[in-house]
Amino acid sequence: MTKGSAAAKRGFDLVVALIGLIIQAPLFIVIAILIKLDTRGPVFFRQERAGMNGSTFRIFKFRSMIVGAYRSGARLTVKRDPRITKVGQILRWTKLDELPQVINVLTGDMSFVGPRPEDPYFTNFYDSEQRQVLSIRPGIIGPSQLHGRDEVEEYPEDVENVEQYYIEKILPDKLERDLEYVRSASFFGDLKYLVGGFFKVLSSQVKGGFLARSKYRLAFLCGDIVLMAAAYMLANFIKFDWGMDLEPEQWAFIGQGLLLAIVLKPPVFVYYGLYQRETRWVGSRDVAAIIKAASVGSAFLVGAAYFTGLRAHSRAVFIYDWALLVALLCIARYGVRAFLNRQSKDAEGEGASFVKVLVAGAGHGGETILRSLLEDPHSRFMPVGIIDHEPHRWGALVHGIRVMGGATDIAMAASTHGVEMVLVSLADLDPVVVREITDACDKHDLEYRLIPALSDLLAEGAPRPIKRVALSPQGRI
Question: Is the pLDDT of residue 154 over 80?
Fold first, then answer.
């Protein structure tokens, strides 16, 4: 590149960077707030990079990983990197994490177009020819971004040393593209890179591999958007006498609110991980996540309505909308869970036989056993009743299964319901009660299993709870 072209390029960088920084300031503020709300730590990530002529500078990026990420793993980001935060996933996917690099352009450390700045550690592996890449300023948009593949996608699934793989397999091709750019760089060529880079960023947001892996999650997201629209419209119908009293201008008003709802709420639901949850095992924690996501989404909707001229929006509609959305989402997920579990059981065979069991213990341990048996589509054990030593629990229902009494009621429960086995929760019962239950099982020739608490199994050096009770041959696991 000639001196004239270099001066024109620098002038162009300064003007565009200054204008861009002013225009992007509101977006910077929003992203900064989201980062601070997501995880503790600074807004910006600043790491040393190799600049022109090998000098080093600190690059600006929005922080997309946990604090201290590079002390707990490789220098490079890998597939499904657990160090990336929730907000960071979105920032990286949309490339918004790189927006602050306009500050580096203003300071002269970078240009808008040029080879991507490398970690100085990796520049130690450059040979003399490859070091020519360092003869010009690195850029926000580089040749490898336009003509190369996404680096993260290039790593094989079974690669163990990502840094070595990068040095041996990825870096040589990347440097070859950068060297070709350095040899033919021009001001008008850079303008083509800028335009091409813009469309490349847009087109790279949708990746075939991502769509294939996430088709079920995306289907759930689309279904939830339909439910969001249905909840909002139903809330308006309930408030306004099923639309009988609505004027044409009010329909337009509702349309604006509906648009805000389906634009603002889906990102909130994605943030709270509603589409990373396995629907087959949906439970109380998933319901809590739905309530939290719906609440935050509704809060955003209320705020947006206030600041976009919809201040006359009915507050009751927001409340109805929230309640209806939570109900619809929960019904949908539990419905899908029931369908999947039924499908699995049908696949196992309609004529499959089940072992009817009693669960001894109505506390946390017994509840865990019951839930596991009821939710496991492959379980061959069918709980028909619960035995517990606390009289105040008798007659209660746990997951729809009745507490039938104490140890003395085992014989009647077994003969009435055809019980073949008793599962004893050691987490809920003391050794004396366990002894009573096992004696009752021995007396009536019932097989039993002693189920220790998970915390006891995991406790280092803790004695196995099963040893607290003298077992008969029938009781051995």
Answer: no
